[in-house]
Amino acid sequence: MKKSIHFQSLLVVFVALAPLPSCTNIDDRPKVLPNAQEQVPSTGKEGNDVRYLISGDYSGTLDLSVVLHNNMPIHPITVNALPWEQTFKAPDTSSFIGGWINAFHNNGMPGQEVNFKMFFKDRLVESVTRSANGEGNVNLPMETLHFDTYDPDGTIDPGHIGKTVRYEAEPNFDHPFNVRYRVADGSWENITLTNFPWSYSYGTEAHSTEATLYTYELVANELDGIMAVNDSIVYRLYINDVETQSAILHKIGPEAFRSEGQIHYEFD
Q: What was the pLDDT predicted at 259?
């Protein structure tokens, strides 16, 4: 897979996380309108399963919104107990899938955790983990997966298998922030960092097509780590203990960054 991550694209995540009216029926699941299907060309995704799995010890109410189709209406699903799992079909007119969780009911407990996973064609795409804030609220963003840049069967040359990848993040501050990075099976992990400096290592496998790491801020969203003006984060990537790339993210204004603050390395 050849994909570059741009910070501008994260606006989509911010918009998606705006609180939506909750639904009280778990069977009120997303429906694809026939007219919406006719508005976009076919991309051959008919019959492909999209599975969502939610786990953790969170005891509050979760409002899950799944995205299966371009221009589809969003009908949040109320999840009252974990674990929870549901499989949907992506129509052949889909060009992307995704989803997010909002929980603003103030009925969870501080520090309780939620893990949100999305699978496509039974392959893990992304795993997002968040903990509830002091009011018992939590939200989890799922990055949008675009089919035109995603190859679930992509593999690397055998000569790259077995290498050690290590990410490092070192901020000049001590408050939490979020990172998203590729792991060995090619999927994403999306977590909140609370201890610094931070590092994560894995051994490359057949589906380890790239090593990517970046962070982002959701402005004015107190549930996520907010960078202050003059905050910065240094990222480093090591392949077999050799520093291969570095990047730095600077916060220079209330909603402005000066940044090449992402690591992106392709093995083929």
A: 61
What are the two backbone dihedrals, phi and then psi, of residue 144, each rounded to the nearest 5 degrees? -70, 130
> pLDDT at position 15, please?
37
Enter the pTM of the model.
0.79
Spatial separation of the C-alpha atoms in residues 197 and 123, rounded to whole Å? 31
The backbone torsions φ and ψ at residue 160, rounded to the nearest 5 degrees and listed phi first, read -95, -10
Give me the residue label for tokens 């057949």: 206
Instruction: For strands 123-131 and 177-182, give the pairing.
Output: unpaired
> Which parts of the chain register pLDDT below 70?
1-47, 216-226, 255-260
Amino acid at 149: T
pLDDT for the residue 39: 37
Residue 11: per-residue pLDDT = 36
